[in-house]
């Protein structure tokens, strides 16, 4: 009896396990399928039927190859009949993601895993477990798409759709690092008339020009080249495999000519004008930075020489570049070390014949090249970003000279210094000026700040900012004169709006006063209007007595120029004034 009892218990245990297995499979959330090795379905749970939107009766005895795949992926009957699992084939290991289709035509992503087991008869069966992962796949695809978009945004310009500076730097670094590479060319393209287009047609017109430019360049470059937008109106083209330097010149000329062809935007004709600097790597030791510097210098020369042209970096330009680089370094050292010199040019009142002021002028006395005129180094100062620093030095020199004048008894002689936009934008400019005049016990009305007329024009933000600074200077008791007046954009119409105390007529108008009737009319009108507004009128660049007399007859207040005196160093100034004081000036009233 005992062996029989054990057997019964064993059978009951096996039956119980089978029941548990059946219950688990029937109620599992995943679809479960039992197949023979020919993929015929022997058993399926309800979850499988639900996933496929089929009745269980339509599943048993059939292969999923008959109904589960999209129509264009469904095998032929012969292929289905010939199908057979190979349990030893490793391709059935792991998970497989398959796109399936339901009877209503809707598609879904099915995650499938297959394992092989032997039944009680010793025959092998395939156990298929599947899960609808469509939502998960959709989310992953969306995240992947977002990732692609973010990657694209990080490497492409949002306005034009072409690569940006980061992509350009990565590309040129890769090309120049390639072993046994050919020469790499670089074009630096700057649009000459973008500001004018923005001013005339607004930013939407400017954007249209940028997109048009990008499209034109993309249409002309080779497959191996890359175009990128690297600044507001700046583009670069990297040209690998440049075997002939003339290629860049020919391509650049073609590009300029194509860009110059007018295109239509909102019913208007727009035209792109550009300058191009070209450079080619000269050895395998060149770096991307070397090529960038050379193309940038070539672009500078193109714009400096009149714009709308191509300049290629060659031997002559290399020597010029080396000279300018050395000059920039020497100039920066001179400014940082306080080694610039400041000269002073007297100003004469035409009503009294007395010296009433001095303009502070910067000079650079080079250790080996001697005196270098401002026109030969001021552009370099601006490019170095040191204009504001130099102007602060000029301010300090002017105030120091005013203290010397006061100590010598010339309290009524004022001093003037130039203030660039960079100095006007300095947050501590006015506070520093006020502190310095108070410390030196200087009368604020004896200090005049000269600002270029063109400084006060441009975009609305800069206009408002500079107008506010001028107002604050005037409110603090300082004089403010518009320098180089008469050559700017608006001139007379803005005199009443700006809180200035005087104007300084541009030397170009003054030098042609005696032989150009147009200049005479302009100068006369400036003087008349300024006098009506109660402004001091100074004429600079007076070279002879006839010009001085003509200005006096027109009602000009003050003159300055070589006829009176050349700019002089501080040590000569007091003696010169004393000598003038002992003699009657020919224009003394």
Automatic annotation (TrEMBL):
InterPro entries: Biofilm_reg_signaling (IPR052155), EAL_dom (IPR001633), EAL_sf (IPR035919), GGDEF_dom (IPR000160), Nucleotide_cyclase (IPR029787), PAC (IPR001610), PAS (IPR000014), PAS-assoc_C (IPR000700)
Source superkingdom: Bacteria
One of the Pfam families matching this protein, by short name: EAL
Name listed for the protein in its UniProt record: Phytochrome-like protein cph2
Organism annotation: Octadecabacter temperatus
Biological classification of the source: Bacteria, Pseudomonadati, Pseudomonadota, Alphaproteobacteria, Rhodobacterales
